[in-house]
Gliding motility lipoprotein GldH (Bizionia saleffrena), 163 residues
Amino acid sequence: MLSRLLLVLVCSLCVFSCDSNAVFDTYKTVPEAWNKNDVISFNITAPDSISPYNLFVNLRNTNAYKFNNLYLIVEMNFPNGKAVKDTLEYRMAAPDGTLLGTGLSSVKENKLWYKEGVVFEESGEYTVKIQHAMRKNGDVNGVLDLEGVTDIGFRIEELSAEH
């Protein structure tokens, strides 16, 4: 029994310590429900102006999340004032309703692609704003309070040699 526990601990440490590609990885907790007017913001200092990076939206959710997909509006504001806004859709559940993502508990973690090979050409601070845009079928106004999302994160990774 002790050897199994030790093996699990060692494997866990390897998984978490081998994550050397992360340049920025931060989460913000969502209160009981994510209101459609609540914008989650991340301020990021440009890592450098030469290297390409992959950008991800990270999301933790529980079984209280009742949708098969997720619509997000993600806006990136550049130091010079330019802004790029994207509406993105992600699959959150398998056809049988089983939530996708990783995690052994009732909380699932999803690493969602945002942009690939981004070069931060301007020095200074960038701001990434994330807002949900969920609606029920036939509902014009959308979901006011999205339940089941516990944390929203943003991650920047260096491109590794294997890409």
